[in-house]
Amino acid sequence: MNPGSIAKVRDRFWVLLPSDDPEVILLRPLTGATDETVALHRRLSELLGYSLPTERLQPATFPPPEPEPLGDAGGARLLWQAARLTLREGASPLRALGRISIRPRTYQFVPLLMALRQDPVRLLIADDVGVGKTIEALLIARELWERGEIRRLAVLCPPYLCDQWQQELQDKFNLEAVVIRSGTVRQLERHKPATATIYEHYPVQVISIDFIKTERNRHAFLQNPPDLVIVDEAHGATQTGSSSHQQRHDFVSRLAANPTRHLILLTATPHSGIESAFQSLLGLLKPEFGQWDINNIPDGKLTELARHFVQRTRRDIERDWEGAICFPRRIPEDRTYALSPAYRDLFNRAYDFCAEIIRTGQNLEERRRRVRYWGALSLLRCVMSSPAAALAALEVRHERLVDLEDNAEVDFRGFVFEDDQDRTEDEQPTSLLEQADSALEEGERRRLRSLGRAAAQLLQGDADAKRIGLVETVDELLREGHHPIVWCRFVATAEYVADALQQALAAAYPDLDVACITGRQADEERRARIAQIPVERPHVLVATDCLSEGINLQEKFTAVVHYDLPWNPNRLEQREGRVDRFGQTAETVKVVRYYGRDNPVDGVVIDVLLDKAREIHQTLGTYVPVPEDSESVTEAVLNALFLRSGYRQDAQQLTFDFIPAEVNVLHASWQRDAERERVTRTRFAQRALKPKEVQRELEAADAVLGDPNAVRDFVLEATNRLGLPLLADRKQADVWHIPLTGLPPNLPDAVRFALPESKADRWTVSFTSPTPAGAAYLGRNHPFVAALARFIFEAALNGREVSGVTRCGALAADLPQPATLYLLRVRYLVHQPGGQELFAEEVRVLGRTADSWLDEAAALDLLNAQPAANLPADEKRRAVAQALQSWDGLQPEVEVRLQNRAAELAEAHKRVRRAMKAGVRGLRVEPKRPADLLGVLVLLPADERGRA
User: How many whole angstroms separate alpha carbon 168 and alpha carbon 100?
Assistant: First the structure.
């Protein structure tokens, strides 16, 4: 028996699948339940077959339909839809679509088409922030998996992204992944055989790159790496940068050194302004790329690099690919506040104190001077943030003070400037202030304690105008229908703000949910709290930058308020990118910069960094990272503020009487980066690929597997017939509610158990991807849709009538002559160049009148026929029996039609392979005979019987 044949073993019918091991037989249930695929050892099966006949693998044929029970046209259509939705190995060239649980946009297929032109795949995907690079990479992974080109894959990412990658792999691409990091290794070790490492045993892995890069852990992985490696946040693995970056680069370089390994690099910021860093990233794709000057590259080399590099802005995508707006419109807004007299006094005293200790520390040795400087800046950030953060920072524990005379300086810049690559520490830098305090005179320490008392007094009253203004801003956003995230710098500030919002807005919004998430919570706790946020009620999230990377929040939030301005504009974009990204269903998102108009330090950050970042974004349509030396520039400006009196404070506006030369140098460098980015994105926007090319392949796959509209029609019809009708939402299009209580007593268990376990009385779903907030996406691979389709299909095949769904039916319709529809499932073997075989299948509807065959479109139209007259039961049985009897005599003509279809499929596969620059010699598609006759529907003219 060959792959694609039907066999019987253990009293069940199976389909033989291609197997890489000649001694192993792969079997899939005839009903198409791919999750029940089993492997039999050929020799063991033969031995058992001598004593246990049920274990003997025997050739079989698909059971033909019985004339009864009889159904209707709607039942025949439902059977056809159920049969299509149970397919996983579709006959179209893009095989991944049968396995995924989302509906990607057209532009997201571009990297896949690029990948199919390569062997091995070596891609740098650098599309804009929020475009969906994860989906683009996993589409490639799933396609390579379905084609049998990979059998193991690993995603390398920062540790805080591991769980999100695992969820994306499982929920959207139906790949069960394990997370490998320090906290999971022991458990994974317990569930593997002693003869294999965890990297060899688990086929799909998500690995913390900072765990695996170490000398202790890397060797076991590098001895037998997976076939495909995806590196997320690849800009963190460049050769130029911190020692951590260098370690990552060295590790990924070892993986890339194998020229046969598939490698996909993902980053929204491939170029940080340092050419050598960018070249080291390109060199991971091909060593020669790392030697090329991207700014002066000849056309031939440019063409070669463009085969491996895609970089598109949102404007590119909407203009060139979608022809419509597919991302939310970001509405920026500035809100300001004026410090109250009491808060102004605290700020001025803190500012004077910081300026004084910096000035008086100029004559200290370098290490002690630097400790003072960073201590002063961190204190100022805390005071600017909130009275709560100021108080927490100023509560110096004198018993813990240490003399730093003999200790090396600790780098505390992360408390002041947000790092681009790793999560910023969100606790108040008490330890830093304590170490700075050890170098202070007693009089200076008394001033610190006095500042602490002033901060404590601010917590008692209504003297915090910043907090009051925030309440007004959030109230306005809620009234506009937005769901905001309030970003804070420190834990104490976040908790202070969350409590203030809950108290101040409780009367106006009795059911308001205010969530507060900080770095004090573990990743699991953060995700659980976000999952609890009720989308049907007003809700606000107050968070520190522990959430600015790694957790997508677009499904529940539509606005951002920067309560504390970041001192790194890269972090500003990361925060806003949590809501302004692919999957956001709101047409607009609002982003609010909130700052003190009489605060000179806020003014420095805005004038030097944030305004320039916004100007570039508005001009270019994309985000350009701040040049690497921005930290030193901002430090120089702040230093100038502390060491000079060259600024003027005004109650209404902040202006500067000087522009340090460093600022002009920074802005000029940044502008050059923006121009380079514009040119690069023009070169690598992949405009040579056309939307029509992608759309043609999608339509071919939809014809085999069914598009989202087909899924919706099937679910609505099937649930209605089973007594579980979906209720349309009155406010949102294509949003439906499935009751979870009061279920019909005769609802099949297979369907009942597929409903989610929930305390709610209904389940909100949608067939549109991305889905509206609060709704689950019901795609063809969703467990509920799969269970529903499988139940309908199996019930019909087993001869059970379920709400009119049977394998045979007849009706009288408005037709000039009788017609018969034959519902077929056709299995194919795709013989590829090189000898590899792929199994594929599809469901076809063949229509025939007395003397000719109908084209496919006409046959499918007849599936929608409505009864136009009564048809006696005896006449239905006779008509169906006659159709079944004539089936064998039609086989030669059916064979011709199936061969023609196989030729069409072969040409489609060749078309894709030609686009891949791959050979097509020897490629053919073989239909397995005979096709499975799933059902028969006879339509008789109504005029001959009188109208109903």
Answer: 11
859 Cβ contact partners less than 8 Å away, ≥ 6 residues apart: 821, 845, 846, 847
Per residue in 426-457, pLDDT (tens digit) is 776 654 455 555 555 666 678 778 888 888 88
CA distance 416 to 371: 13
Q: Which tokens is 393 given?
A: 């920072």
C-alpha torsion sign, points 389, 395, 396, 399: negative
pTM for the whole structure: 0.84
Q: How far is CA 267 from CA 46, 474, 486, 554, 778, in A?
A: 53, 33, 26, 19, 30
CA trace torsion 624, 629, 630, 635 (10° rounding): 180
Pairwise CA distance, residues 188 & 186, whole Å: 5
Residues 26 and 165 in one domain: no
Residue 82's SS3 state is helix
Instruction: Give the closest residue to 226 by CA, choosing from 134, 156, 303.
Output: 156
My answer on whether omega of the bond before 930 falls inside 30° of 0, hence cis, is yes
For residues 573 and 562, the answer to whether their CB atoms sit within 8 Å is no
What number is the average pLDDT over the span 695-702?
Answer: 84
What are the tokens at 662? 């460093």
> Per residue in 719-767, pLDDT tens?
999 999 899 998 888 899 999 988 999 899 999 999 998 878 899 999 9
**What would the pLDDT profile of 280-292 be if each residue is shown by its tens digit?**
889 999 999 888 8
In a domain, 753, yes or no: no
Evaluate whether 836 touches 3 at the Cβ level (below 8 Å): no
* Contact status, residue 310 vs residue 114, Cβ threshold 8 Å: yes
Task: Give 190-205 as a DSSP string.
Answer: HTS-TTS-HHHH-SEE
The answer to whether the beta carbons of residues 756 and 775 sit under 8 Å apart is: no
Q: How many domains does the chain have?
A: 5
SS3 annotation, 736-788: EEEECCCCCCCCCHHHHCCCCCCCCCEEEEECCCCCCCCCEECCCCCHHHHHH
For residue 561, the 8-state DSSP code is E
Do 485 and 610 lie in one domain? The reply is yes
**Partners of 924 in the β-ladder:** 831
What are the backbone angles phi and psi of residue 705, rounded to the nearest 5°? -100, -20
Cα separations (Å) of 481 from 122, 468, 475, 529, 775?
Answer: 44, 20, 10, 22, 18
Q: Say if residues 550 and 164 touch (Cβ distance below 8 Å).
A: yes
Residue 800, domain member (yes or no)? no
Torsion of CA 667, 670, 672, 673, to 10 degrees: 180
Same domain for 448 and 467, yes or no, is: no
CATH of the domain at 601: 3.40.50.300
**Taking residues 375-389, what's their average pLDDT?**
87
Closest CA to 863 of 194, 341, 84, 87: 84
For residue 362, the 8-state DSSP code is G
The pLDDT-based confidence of 628 (bands split at 50, 70, 90) is low
Distance CA 228, CA 213 (A): 17
Q: In terms of domains, do 362 and 394 share one?
A: yes
Q: What does the alpha-carbon distance between residue 496 and residue 511 come to, in Å, rounded to a whole number? A: 20
In a domain, 500, yes or no: yes
28-55: pLDDT as tens digits: 887 655 567 888 888 777 777 666 777 7
Report which of 882, 943, 871 is spatially closest to residue 72, judged by C-alpha positions.
871
Own/partner pairs, 358-365, CB within 8 angstroms, 24+ separation: 358/639, 358/642, 358/643, 359/642, 359/643, 361/439, 364/439
Half-sphere exposure of 206 (CA within 13 A, CB side): 23
Give the range of the structural domain holding residue 446, as residue numbers without chain letter: 342-458
Report which of residues 118 and 370 the model is more confident about. Answer: 118
How far lies 430's CA from each of 380, 427, 843, in Å? 13, 8, 67
pLDDT recorded at residue 638 = 67
Give the Cα-Cα-Cα angle 869, 75, 71 (nearest 5 degrees). Answer: 60
